[in-house]
Structures are given as C-alpha cells and as structure tokens.
Design goal:
Shape: elongated
Number of domains: 3
Radius of gyration: 39 Å
Distance between the termini: 126 Å
Structural class: alpha+beta
Number of strands: 25
Strand content: 15-25%
Strand order of the largest sheet: 6-14-13-8-10
Largest sheet: 5 strands, mixed
Number of helices: 8
Helix content: 10-25%
Length: 585
C-alpha cells in the first residue's frame, strides 16, 4: 500500500468515490472512534463548519487517501501498555525526526494546554495524510524538508479559490495561495498559527518541528478537549472540512495508537493515492491568434466573369477571425469589499481574569454601502496585556455572514492590566482595517468580612493568639487575587499608621504597622501575619482595604500585663532564723 520514497508511484489509482467507500468500510471494521454505539456515522454531532472561515488549515487542499492495513501492528503480550513496536508493517514506521517532532509538540501542549489532551498519534495521522510524513522523512537534522512540499495553487479551478495572501513569501506564488510544508498550512493560516517548535527563532512551515507544534495549537484552540469525541471531530474537520478526511485521520490515529516504530529519516513509506486523482482540471484559456488560412477556390460558374480565358479580377480580402478577449480572473466576494465598518461595539472593559461581555464585530461593505458575505476577516490582538480570544489565541479569522457581519470570538482578559488593541482586516485585500481599544482593569472587591468572631485581645508585651483572616467578595462571589493592604491606624478618621500599639514584624523582625502587596487567594481569603503588642495598653484599630474600595476595621485590645507573683525563697524556714555560719562558737 505504501511505497518507499523514490519508488515510482503506481498508476491507475482508485477514484475518489472508491476511496471514500473504502474509508467507510474500514471505519466500520476497525476504528472504534469512527462509528457510534448505535452504528450511526461517527460524525453525528460533529460540526461541518470551519470555525475560522478559511477552509481549514489547508484551505481544503488535496490529501493522501491511502488506508492503514486492516490489522494494526500489536506490541508483544509482555510489553507494557503503550510500548511502541520495534518492527511490523511498513505503514507503522515513522521517520525518526518526524516522530520526534510529533512527540515534542504533544509534550509542549500537555504543559501549555493541558485541557486539550493532545495525542501525538493525531499529529502523526494528519502528517501522514497531508504529506506522507514529510515524504518519507525527507528532512535535514533540524527538521526542515529537503525539498519544498506544495499543494496545488488554489485558483478555483478544481479547488478552492484563495487569492495570494503572502506575496509568495511561503509558497513562491504571488497570484494564489498554496498549502505549504509537511502539515500543509496555507499562508493565511500560517501567518497567525505558525510556531517555533525547534527554538531557532523562526516560524517555518517547511520545518516539521514548527509545523507539528503549529498543528497542535491549531487543533487545541476553541477550548477543545480532544479526549471528547465531538471536540476531536470538530478539530479534525477544522483542519480539512471533509467527512472522508475525518474518517481517514481517525483510522490512522487508531492505527498508530496500536503500535508504531521508528525508521531512519528518508526511508519511510510514502502514500500513493490522492484525493484529487481523476479530477479533470480545465486549463486556463489563453488568447491566441489562429493561423490564417486561404479560403477554398470558388468554382467557376457561367456568367461569373471569370470563365474561359478572361483575366481574373482582384481577390476579396481574407477576413481575420476575431481575437478572443483576455480572460479575467474569477471574481470573489473579497474583490467587492471597499471598506469595513464597526458594528457599534460599546466600551470594551473587563476585570483581570474575566471575560469581556461585549463582542467585537465589523461589516464588510461595497463602495455604495452594500454588505458582502463570505469574506474572511482576520482579528488580531496587539499590546502588552496577556488578553486573548477564547481558546487562548491572539489571532482569529472569521467569515462574514449573510449580512456581511463578522463577529470576533469572545475576548478573555488575562492578569496583566492595561490597554490593548484589536484590529479587524480583510484577508487577501488591502482595505483599511478597523481598530478597537480594550482595557483590562485590576481585580477588585466590594466587601470584606472576618472569617472568625473571637475578640482579638493580647497582654502588653505579648502576642495575639490568633491570626486575622478576612474574606473578600465582589457582587457576592469570592474575589480572588485582589490586592490588599493592612494598617494599624491612628483612629477611625485618621488612616495613617499608628506609631504605637499592636504591630507586625518584617523579615528582619523589626516592628511594622502597615503591610502592602497583600493579595487574596483564589477563594478570596487573606490571612494576615501574626500580630504583637508593645507595652502600650488600650484599644487599637486594624484597617484592611482592597482594590475597589472594600474596607474592614477590626478592633485590637491590649490589656495590662498581670502583676508578677513573687517566687518564695526556699532557704527561708518557718522557725528561728538560720544561724550565721560566720559566727564563732
């Protein structure tokens, strides 16, 4: 089923319809994740829409349709669960550098996006379907492909229509986009999804480490949990929006889960059949001047003036056939866009850690103000905050709806406060973008309360028995990570620190009566350090204040120390005084 790299590909491949039927048959017999328990197709409940509105990561480019063997390689019975096989079917062999890239990408995602549950076998399945594992592992030591891997140009002629978006920087084509590299990203998707997977400071779609990590992050966006079947299906369909593609990737993923082994770079198997085999592409017409031909001589007829020995008259001019007009490229909705307008989004403000309640949106319009549907709009976040779109990305691409409107994914504030900018721009066309400014404010509390009720009393010169603990809330809910201060104040009306009475200790043990830089925990709780009392008695006030203005005043009482009880002299007796040992007898 697979040929080693360099071997001549087999001709007479099966048609797409036959391949699709084979996928369905294999899905029913092998991959448990491909069919539901009630024997409905596994895609039930999985969305067919592409969330980014770009035709997926690949622009729905062609892919390899070869199926895995019906019998997956199995590790030996004594091997621990998950042990890769050391030998087996050729299809299970993955080139060493390519396999290393998949595993490193999955490991990075376990740290950066643990809720995604990314299996490296999914990356391997997509890498095999998209490029035959970088064409059998034709990569250098750094993971960069030895030869450029390009899909067909997406010119609408048998494929999707995606005019050039990168000036040919990635694919060398300044007219139309082409899928690039071992994971087949189109340039417009790589522009925001690209990652540096090998730490060389570059994001190169032709490098398997960069491409594998980018594919992993692409599949993990939208808070998808790939251990859930519905999310797994949605993620795969977002990569290439095809039900056949979904079933094929699921089969290869299951195949690799049952066993895979390393083979040297450059010796891996290469698939033989593609989804575009049998597709008849109509060549673009070119204006040509057909050769001028002389008309056949007209037969002589009586009385026509050209019979017998009469001198022939002048020949009529030969008509030239009309030159066909130069064809114009097919128009797209993007070509109609003259400008973008905002959709009336209000003030964009959210507290750190919260979701923004307002959605950013724009409308694509023609020069006369008519809305344009099916236009790709890219929303990009810039600034010093760590705000993101839902799913953790800073760039999102959305297609305009029937009313020409594209809504960005919900915004999520991070922990860094300040302003950031969201820019909406048309993908593939130089149209002035629309900018929005958003603000992340610090976390606040609007109420504080003590968690205990015992009076806080201490003897002069001693230490308070318990520590003060308070709980901060905001609109009735726990207010976590809120900044706070605690100060022993002079009076209710004078919030300056007192110069006597109860005190805290700093790191060197010196008395301090004001603490800053405090912060509540995730449950809104704040436990203050231990308090001590000097020799001044009376009632003092401890004031706790949080960002947002919540204030709590706690009384502290210092009582006079109890008088010391004299210790009896053990040498004293109840009778006569002891004789003076110095006295003489």
């Amino acid at each position: 089923m697979a040929a080693h790299f360099g071997r001549r590909l087999r001709k007479g491949a099966a048609s797409t319809a036959v391949a699709a039927a084979a996928v369905a048959a294999l899905s029913a017999s092998q991959a448990p994740g491909v069919a539901g328990e009630d024997n409905r197709p596994a895609t039930a409940g999985a969305t067919n829409s592409v969330p980014d509105g770009t035709g997926g990561a690949t622009g729905n480019s062609p892919y390899y349709t070869d199926l895995p063997p019906l019998k997956s390689p199995e590790p030996g019975p004594s091997a621990p669960v998950g042990t890769p096989v050391s030998r087996g079917d050729a299809e299970a062999g993955i080139p060493a550098t390519v396999l290393d890239a998949y595993k490193k990408a999955a490991a990075e995602l376990r740290t950066s996006k643990p809720g995604c549950n990314m299996p490296w076998q999914l990356l391997a399945a997509i890498g095999n379907v998209e490029s035959g594992q970088a064409r059998g592992g034709q990569v250098d030591a750094d993971g960069t492909t030895l030869h450029r891997i390009l899909g067909p140009q997406l010119d609408g002629n048998g494929f999707a229509l995606i005019p050039d978006t990168d000036g040919g920087a990635y694919d060398g084509n300044s007219s139309y986009d082409q899928a690039v590299g071992p994971m087949q990203f189109i340039p417009s998707t790589w522009a925001w999804a690209g990652r540096d997977g090998n730490g060389d400071g570059k994001k190169d779609p032709n490098n398997i480490y960069d491409a594998a990590l980018a594919a992993g992050h692409y599949l993990c966006r939208n808070d998808w949990d790939l251990s859930r079947e519905a999310d797994l299906h949605s993620a795969i369909l977002s990569y290439n929006n095809s039900q056949d593609y979904l079933a094929l990737v699921l089969n290869w993923m299951e195949y690799y889960r049952k066993g895979a082994h390393t083979v040297p770079d450059g010796t891996g198997g290469v698939p033989e059949h593609r989804s575009d085999e049998g597709t008849q592409r109509v060549p673009s017409p070119r204006p040509t001047q057909p050769p001028t031909t002389k008309p056949a001589p007209k037969p002589h007829e009586p009385g026509d003036g050209n019979g017998g020995n009469e001198t022939p008259g002048p020949k009529p001019p030969t008509p030239k056939p009309p030159v066909p007009p130069t064809p114009t490229p097919p128009g797209t909705p993007t070509d109609l866009v003259d400008h973008l307008t905002g959709t009336g989004t209000g003030k964009l403000t959210a507290m750190a850690g919260d979701a923004f309640t307002e959605r950013i949106g724009v409308r694509a319009e023609t020069k006369v103000g008519k809305s344009v549907a099916k236009v790709r709009i890219r929303f990009t976040l810039t600034g010093d905050t760590d705000a993101t779109f839902a799913g953790g990305e800073t760039v999102a691409t959305v297609a305009t709806d029937a009313k020409g409107v594209a809504l960005a994914p919900p915004l999520q504030a991070g922990e860094k406060t300040g302003d950031f900018k969201v820019t909406a721009a048309v993908v593939g066309r130089q149209v002035k973008g629309v900018d929005y400014t958003a603000t992340v404010t610090e976390r606040v509390a609007d109420a504080l309360a003590r968690t205990g009720t015992d009076p806080l009393i201490c003897a002069a010169g001693g230490e308070f028995a318990g520590q003060v603990q308070v709980k901060a809330t905001y609109r009735g809910a726990a207010a976590g990570k809120v900044a706070a201060t605690a100060t022993v104040v002079k009076s209710l009306l004078d919030a300056t620190p007192n110069d006597k009475g109860p005190y805290f200790k700093d790191a060197t043990g010196k008395p301090v009566r004001s603490l800053t830089g405090l912060r509540t925990d995730a449950k809104g709780l704040l436990t203050l350090p231990k308090l001590y009392a000097d020799d001044t008695t009376g009632t003092f006030l401890l004031r706790v204040t949080t960002a947002g203005g919540a204030t709590l005043t706690v009384p502290l009482t210092v009582e006079a120390a109890s008088p010391a009880v004299p210790t009896p002299d053990p040498s004293a007796s109840s009778g006569s005084p002891a004789p003076d040992p110095s006295a003489s007898s």
